[in-house]
Structure formats: C-alpha cells, structure tokens
Batch of 2 targets.
Target 1
Amino acid sequence: MTNAAEVAQLRARIEHAERTGRIGRSGRIAADAPVLPAAPELARLLPDRGLRTGGAYALGRSGALLTALLAAPSAAGIWCAVVGIPEFGVEAARDAGVDLARIAFVPDPGDRWLAVVGALAESISIVAVRPSGRVGDAEAARLAARLRERNAVLLVQGAWPLAEARLEIERREWTGLGAGHGLLERCTAGVRVTSRRTGAPRRGRIVLAGRPSVALGTRDVLPDLQDAQLTAVG
Amino acid sequence: MERCLVLWLPDWPVTALVRARGSTVPDDAPIAVLAGNAVVACSQAARRAGVRRGMRRRDAHARAPGLRIAAEDPGRDAREFLPVVDRVERLAPGLQIIRPGLAAIRIRGPARYYGGELPAAEELLGHLHAEGFAEAMAGIADGRFTAEQAARSAAPVRIVPVGEAAAFLGPIPVEALGDDDLARLLVQLGVRTLGEFAALGADHVLDRFGPPGAHLHALASGRDSRRVAPREPPPELAREVAFEPPLAIADQVAFGIRVAAEEFVAGLVARRLACTELRIELIGPDGGGSERVWAHTSSFDAAAIVDRVRWQLDGASADARSAEALAEGVATVRLAPEAVDPIGEHEPGLFGGVTDERVHHALSRVQAILGHRGVLTASVGGGRRLAERTVLTPWGDRPPARADAGRPWPGSLPPPLPPLVPRDPIPTAVEGEDGSPVRMMDRDRLGGRPARVRIDGAFRRIVEWAGPWPLIEHGWDPTAMRRAHRFQVVDETGSAWLLLLEDGGWSIEGGYD
C-alpha cells in the first residue's frame, strides 16, 4: 500500500468516525443530511457525489459551472435562487437543462446580500450568491448554522470560509473557431475540486458548453482520483 | 356536444330596482346603478344620453342631468330574478342561473319538445316578453360561454351553428372573458380578440397563466363544447357546513361558508377540475329550505361561490316554502359540484398555479427587504440581442404572454449561448497587430485582423476568432433600423467572448465562461 493510499484511507476512517458521531467536531454537517443531485461528470468529483445539504461550495466566476450545478437539481424540481449575479445567462441556462420555473433571481441585493441569502435559505434548497463584500467568520458561521438547520446548499462565487469544497475551472479548450472563420461549437474544461474531506484535489473534465460527448469517460479522470474514490467510499 | 341556450335580460340591476320599487318609475327615466362611485348598470334612456358602465358618478350626471341614481344591491338583483327563473322553469325544466339577469339551459330537451332550437328559444323569449321583459335576448351555441356571447350580440335570438363557436368568438374582444387582469395584459400585448388569444399555443398559455388561464384559453377557442358528456364529479368533493345555532343573517352565512368555499375550490384544483355547475343547498333547522343549481360560464372560484350562496339566500325569502323552512335561520349549507371540466393536462408551473407556500413566503420576505422588483423570475422571449431575449418578471406578477418567443428570429445567435449576459453590453476595445483600433471598412468587411481585446481593463491576445455576422434590427423601418456586427473570439486564457461592433465602438455582449 502506498503512502498516499494509506493517508486517504485514514482520512476516510476519520470522516466515518465523525459522521457516526464518535468524533465530535462542531460545525460539521450531519451524516444523514440529504445530498442534492449533480451532473454525473461533476458528481464523481464532489466529496459526496452531489451537493451535501447544509454545506457551502466555493466556485470561481464561471457562469457555465454555476449553470451546470443548477441543472440537475432544478430539473428535479428543487428550488434554487441566484443572488447578486445580474449577468446570469438565462437562455444558456435553459439550454443546459436548467428549469427556469424553479429559479428565483435576486440580481441586485446590494449590501443586503447576506440578509437576503439568510432569508432565502429558509426554504430554498440551493442559493447561489456572488457576495458584494467580505464576510466575517462569525457571519459565515451563523449562515452555516442556518444552512444545516434548513438543509440548504450555498454556492458562492468567490472565497468562503468553511467551504465543503472549492470547484475551479482549469484548462478550457474550445472547438469550432479558427482564424477568422467557424463558429464556437463546444468547450471542454478541466475542473479541480479541492475539499478538506478528500485531501488531494480531484480532477476531471467536463463539457462546459455545447453538446456533451460520449468520449469523456473515466479515461479523462486522473489515476490519483480513482484511488481516492475507492477508499473514500468505504 | 352540449348545445346550450342562454337567456339574457339586459341591465338587470336597473330592472330589479324598478320592479322592487313598484312600477312608479317611468319607462324612459334615465337610471344608473352604482357600486361605490362607478356605474355598473344603466337604463336605456341613460345609455342614450351617453352614460356607460364604469363611468364615474359625476361624469354620468353631466351626461344625463335628470339621472336617478341607486346603490348596487346584489340581494335585490337575486330576489327579483329568482322568481322569474322559477316561472320560466315551468316551461323548460333545468334552467340554471349564471347570475342575476343571465340563465342557461341545455337546449336539447326543449328543442325536441318545441320542434327545433329556434322555436324553443322563441317560446321562452315569448314567455319573458309576456312577463314584461321586452328586452330579453337569447343565444344558442355549443357551450355556455359561446351561448352567452351569442345572447349579447344584439339580435333577439342568435344561433351559432354546431362547430362554429371558434369562428363566432374570433372577433369578440378579450374583455368578454370576464377576467379584467388577463384582458388588460392581453391587450397590452396586442392580443385584442378571442381569436388572437385562441391562436396562442395552449402549452404557452398554461405555462404563463396557469390552469385558470388555460381554461379561459379553451373557452376562447370555442372548446367549451368538446366535452361530450359532463364528467360525473366525484362525490367527496362536496362540502358541508353546519351552523349551531342556525344563522339568520345573510352576511353571517356568507362569512361562515368562506373557508368551506375555498376548500371546495382547492379540492377541485387538486384534481385538475373546474366547477362549471354548482348545487347549493340551504337547509333550515327542521329540514327543507332551498336547493338550486348555479351555472358559471368559466368556473366558480371561492368568491363566486360565496356570492351565489348569498343570492340564493336573498331569493329564498321570495319563495313562501323556502322562506318558511329558513325562517329560523340556516342550519346547514351544502356545496356540491354538479358539472366539472378538466383544466389542463400538465403540472401547473410556477405561475398562477400551485407554488410551494414556503418558497413563496421566503421570496416575499426578500421582496420586503429589496422591493417588489428585487425578486424576479425569468423566461426566454423573442428578439435578436441576448439581453432583450431575457424576460424578467417580479415574483408574484403574471409574466407577460409573449407570442414571439417560439418564433424563429433570423440573425439570432446559434447555440451554445453565452452563460454570461451583461444587461447592457460592456464597452471594450479591439486592436490589430499594430495597436490600431479595428473597424468595419464597408458593409460587411472588417478592416484588419483583430489581435487583442480588452477584458477587465487589460488587453488579452486573441487566439481564435470569427465574424463579422451582421445583426440588423427593425430592417423594415429606416428610422429605427439598427445595424451592428457580431464576433466570437477566444482569448489567450481560453475564455471565449461574444463581441459587438456598432457605430465604430466595440462592446462585450456575452461571455462564454
């Protein structure tokens, strides 16, 4: 057994102990908190193979990534809100499978964004927000408690203390365009998911725009990820 | 096919007023009945002088100086109308009241008895004329809604032949639907007639206006009639309210059945049904009382049910037997659906339909923080520019029905579409290899190769690009015509952008990141 695999196994054990309540750690999410669905390509990179309710996830500014995260839950009838992101592309989201009838938009919360997010988290399962200011640890902890209590998920475009995982877009590759000709056709991008629960970042490729392709399978997933998955499940 | 006859006594509130006061009022007196400050009905003489429904009291007075004014009294309207219906019903059993002044009957039986639809209508009208209702009119058509419109079409008897409901309804203004909010919205959108409303896709209407809108849409399409036999309403939908001790005052009864009426409607909606005929039983403490079937041209909501109970109670006082049974008050009110219509096959969407109460509560709270326009719902509309294709509607408002959403828009952008769409294009700069700005040379030719684009204040190298694609708007109108060119570029970081070159200036219309 390699060192890396050993470490991963230990982490998994600690996590298991925490979840079953043998190790108390304040601020952790209950083990039986429901997990909201995610697209398969993203699910295999996320610590719980989906969005763990009660958790916060930090994203970059990618609108396509946010759209990809909202598609599966909204299509499953789960309510979502998009706060402080006035340029959210509604039509692209619809094309990506987002059910617009399940999305509420609060484009301009101004400096009331934290109050707005708190109010929405009462009954909306996924709240995506781009904070217009810094958030203190105390405020983040208060909101985290609200999220756990209400089984809601926070998606933050920006940094967030105590995030379950951080999702970042890495290399983007476009096809379809040339030097003065063509039409944007498809974009694949590397996604890196960093979580304090899974140790080493997991990497995979997703289709960020255009038709999904069958060619994107496990061969696009780096070997270290596969190891981590095998151990994290147990 | 349910052929239906509707009898209409025009200006009923005025007629009821005159009859209630005894015939001391001369026939040609200008009379107006007002609700609050607005005219709800007026006599022929007043109409000739220019008084109209909806007019304010002062304006009505100015038009007709000798105008006599009375306050609206739905109880009086019902009290005077119900005995008339009861007398006509002796000729043709099954006459149902839609509201005071308007009643409906399935015409098949009377038509067979009197030897045709027209003779039957003439027989009923003749009876009404003999009773002193010289202005009574009748309409016969497939379904009650169409028949009511036919009755209102100025001829004493108007018969819309089988299958021609849609053609007959086509030119009638949307106000005829009886839903003022919907009608106002439709008119704003340029949909002025029932025919134009019917031309909208049923799915779109259901999405935007929910089941009630879909039901009105079906009526406007003349599809009131498709129902071959009324569906047998499930008996468990009936509601019963008992009053202990019995209530003698109409207001108390009306208040007492409000919750039951709401539950009654909710139970129907949960089964995707609309109640078009409602049986109301008012039962006295010792049994007996008043039983009546009310009809509705579209469908009963809770307020409409409360009104009918009140009217029936008012009418009961005119009938000796009912009056006696209810002399001690009303002990039980029973509401039962007599006929129901299905209202749409699909799950209601966000709008007008059933929304999770808690979600609504949370969003309303955010509206309390940020204002009504602070929380929006989005849909995709028509247009060529990305930003204008996004239709944002404040939470709780009805989204505008847009006939243009499904239309092809030549020159609109092919997918994949940018997930980032600024509300207004962001000004930027594009320069060639030599650092000079890139411009259009003539109509559709670019004067140089775009090499760098300014993003977030710094220039990035363009690695791939395509364009220009002309974007012409209002091409039919030289004064309003706008002409721009679109480009797609991928910059050195792998980000792709949709750029716009208009009047020599570059801007970012969308980001593909």
Target 2
Amino acid sequence: MATEAPNDAMQTAHAADQGEVLIEVKDLKIHFPVTAGFVISRTVAVNKAVDGVTFDIKRGETLGLVGESGCGKSTTGRGLLQLYKPTEGHVLFDGQDLNELKGNDLRLMRRRMQMIFQDPYASLNPRMSVRDIVGEPLIIHGIGSAAQRRERVADLMRIVGLNPFYATRFPHEFSGGQRQRIGVARALAVDPDFIVADEPVSALDVSIQAQVINLLEELQEQFGLTFLFIAHDLAVVRHISDRVGVMYLGKLMELADRNEIYENPLHPYTKALLSAVPIPDPVMERKRERIILTGDVPSSLRPPRGCVFHTRCPIAIDECRQEIPEWREISPNHWVACHRV
Amino acid sequence: MSTLLEVKDLRTYFNTEEGVVKAVDGVTFDVQEGETLALVGESGCGKSVSALSVLRLIPIPPGRIVSGEVIFEGEDLLTMGEGEIRHIRGNRIAMVFQEPMTSLNPVLTIGKQMTEALELHLKLDKEAATARAVQLLEMVGVADADRRVSDYPHQFSGGMRQRVMIAMAMSCNPRLLIADEPTTALDVTIQAQVLEVMQRLSREFGTAVIIITHNLGVVARYADRVNVMYAGKIIEKASAEVVYADPRHPYTLGLLNSVPRLDQILQEKLVPIEGQPPDLGHLPPGCAFYPRCTYRIDKCREEFPPLQLVAENHYAACWVDVTQGRSTENGD
C-alpha cells in the first residue's frame, strides 16, 4: 500500500485505511531468559513474552492493543521503542529498521517516539519539579537554551491543561489526573511523531479518565500524532482507536477496524473478552448471555502447543491442539489467527 | 424481607498532619436479608472506610469512629466489647478484600488458613474442618480441591486466590458478606468468573452482600440497590434500575455519562466531569461537588443539601432537580 499511496503530509489525522505506514512490525519476538544459579547462571527456561506479532501502524492513526495481564501487550509497546531488544523480527519506523540503528542515529530516532506510562505516581520522580520533569527530554536531546526550555515547558503545560504557574511544584502536590497530564507533557516535549500510551488511564478515577482520553484525542488532532494505545478496558479502547488488536499469550489473535472487531468479532477469545465486560445498564446487563471462559491464562513459560488459546477455547478441535493457526487476512483489513474461522 | 444491618449517621474521621479528614461523614444505610447492596464511588469517597467501620477494622489511631450506630441483628456493633465483635467477624459478617495477593498469609497453607475460622467459630475438630474446607473449595470451583488444600497461596493464580478468599469468607455461613473491590485487581475474563461464583454462593447460602466498587458495570449486573458516595457522604440511593435509568444527582449523572460503553454508538467526544476529585482535608462548606457541578446554584455553596426523597424509594442530596433544572428546595 505504501508504494502506491501518494503521501499527503497534511492529511494525517484519522487516515485509517489509505494512510502511509509509519511503523511496521514484522514477526516480532521478545523472549526473556529465565536463569538459575548464583555463581554460574544458566538459562533454565525462556519466557516468550511476545512470540511473533506482525502488524503495522499508519501515520495519524491510533492502534489499540488489548489483552489481559501477561499477554505481552506492554512488552510489544516497549519493543517498538527499542526499550527491549527484539529476540527476532524487525520494527521499521518510517522505513528504517530500528535494529540497525546505533548510537547517535538511534538517539535521533528516539526523539520521534515517546511513551506515556500507566502509573502517574511511580513514573514521575518525586524529587523533581514539574519544570525539570517536562524539560528533561529537552536537555537529553540538547534542544534549546535554558530560557527557551523554560518557555517551552510553560507552553507544554498550557497545552495539556495545567497552569504554568505551578511549574516549580512537585508531583505530590498534584492529583492523579493532573500527574498524568504532566506525563503527557513530558512525552510531547520533543515533538514526537509516535507515542506509546501504556494503560494511560487505568490508574485514574472514572470521572478523570474521560478528561485524559479527550486530551489525548485533542493532541492527536492538533499535532498529527500516531498512537499505540495499550489498555485492558475494551470500552475505552473502542472509543479512542481506529483499529484494535487483541493479544493472548504473546500472540495476536485478531486485528481489525474498531467497528468491525466490536460488531463482528471472529476469534473466540475476542468474543469472550467482549462478553465479559459488564455494561453499565442493569436492564440490558441482566438479559445478556455471557461466555464465561473456564480456567486461567497458562504461563508464558510453558505456552500450550498448537493454538495458545486452545486450553480455554469453547470450540477447540484436535487441529487446534496440534497446529499453530496461521495469521491471515480473512477479509480486507480483518486479520485473525484461528482454525475455526 | 427484614433488615439485617442498619448503619445510622456513621462518622469516621482520621487525624492527619493536615488536620482532621472526615472520611465518612454522616452515612446512613441499611441492608436487607439476602440482598446485594452496592457502595459506589471513586477513590477517597469513603466507601471502604464505611464498610471497615461496620466491623470496627479502622486503625485507631489515626482513625476514630466519632459517632453513629451499626445495628446488626439487633445489636450495636460499635458499643459491644472486643471479645463479642470477634464472634461476629468472619462468622456472622465476613469480608473479601481487594488484593488476593496480600490478604492471604504466604507462609501458611490454604487449608490451615481456612480451618482456622472453622475451628474457632464452628468448633469443628481438625478433620471435620479440613473436610469442610475441601468442600468449600470445590464449591468455588477449585479443581482437585483435596490436594490443593495443602498448597500455599503462591501456588494459586490471582483469580484462584480470590476464589479461596470467597470460600474462606463463606465458610462459617455468614449472614452478611462485605466484598471490598473484590475483582479490581483481576483481568476481565477472571473477573467474570469470580463475580459469578460470589453471586451463586451468596444465593445458595442466603447471604446478604455489600459490594464496594467503582465499576458501574459490575454494579449494574450484581446489585439490587445502590448507594452512590462522594466525599464521605451518600449522595444518591435507589434500586439499581432506577439509578441507571433516572439518576437525580449531578455527580451520578456525570459518572454515567463519562464512561464509554460497549453497547452504545460511538460518541465523538466523551463528557468528563470537569475539575479534580475533592480534597477531603479542605472541603467546601456547602456541597462537596459544588466546584465540579454543572447544575450548581448559589445555595449549593453555602448549605449542604440533605438526602431527600425525590421519588418512591429514591433519595438524592441535591438542591437542584436535574430533571427540571430548577431548585427542589420547596418541592417537598
């Protein structure tokens, strides 16, 4: 698609289908060795946190990544930013293979991709003022003079809805929602193209979540940002994403446009996940048929053979226990990995 | 149905460096036999402290229960002796906590922790208690229960630990189960399993449940009646159907509007409640929701609105009638 699309840099916002690909992930694997032994350490097992995911993110779009804890969604996000070195596979950012970049080239590339973390309490240094926190990326990347940085921090605070008057205050003087705004300002400081938002609202109160989601959407429009939005709240992901990917045990199960995946889920795991979310309406909720999965998520140290979901799948057949289902495009832009579809 | 628990004008304050924090400030509610009551609200609204005060589990100091009555089966739990309330805790009223990781003792087997209450409250001998523990584990869906009863907590997954907590809580056949954010730490598919188990058991045992949560979806599915809390006070109470279909407090209304829903057409923009959550140490003199309220009138700033009847079995603490957009001050 990238070869035929004449790219119009102005048309960035919500260019879901036609847009140019900004990030290409090819068969990405991130494995962590589990070691034992004190003096002579040896690898006793391998944790396959991310085990072969392939997808792309188009410029200006928001790709949502959902799944339960331990499914590898955060590791994938960090892998895209080269915070973990891929065991196998490639991440292409604007056509450049990040594996091949080193030193200064990698640092320059890092300016273009930033991260917003889940916990606004743990991700801000309690001993640094807001000015130092938001200004730190500018210092690291050697941008501007001290006076320019100060001005830039004030601008950023205004952009995220904080009063620049409070620049000298410390994180503990802010509420959770305000702290998350500080985290957003920090991510914006170096003017990135791409932001990985890892559960940015799940630590916030319900009434504050909507504020931060709206802020992220406004910023996307204003600056043409591309987001990878990682969350476990399916309603939030549906609201903010253009496309949604569902992960389970280190693999992608399904990926499609948000309306498609919510209205026409194909993978049994996606269906179960959607039906497990209670809807805030007692009349509707009590009528609803639910698919309740049995059992727990298996350990990623010993993932099941064949399809990783077969141990909990209500419609698994012998084939699922033997063979890994292929990741295939079942209809335009709707990808799924399941033998039964 | 008869009243099982009656909480009257409960006030629990904490002394902090920044002064007195009124975590629970005049809360009145009741629980009927066998029903499920939800206490809903955001962090710091006093929902957990209300429940902990019922069992006198508030750390004193810095906390203190300043006033109020907690009548359970005709007795005031707040005035009874320490020995007496111990017969209530874990026996007549049981509790399930949020963190299944930290609320089990890591160095004791599941069996040991479960039989402790059975031996203490039901005076069972060791063998009978263990047999009962196995039976309870089977009821909550722990496979291979007779072997797993001698396992340690770390050998269980999060969802399984929460099942164990429920089995333990139900072990003495309590009349009331208090579940404080029982599934907040769990994944959605596991959350559904655990809530289903809790509902099934409480129905089988005829146990009333107080479920404390911020998840409006969970409330919609499991609660019969709902109390919405804000800044230490109950600001709205009604049956679950009514609260969702016809909310009368601006905060409840705002809360329901601010969450994206899977069953609705996508909105262009979410409608958040503006402003920040209240600082309990520095509450405004009138309605605590005043600074964030879109319906506010001058009176709200000065005088706290009492909880008053707005429809049959439906109470709200607001000077404004949100359905009309005008004051209900002289309405009743």
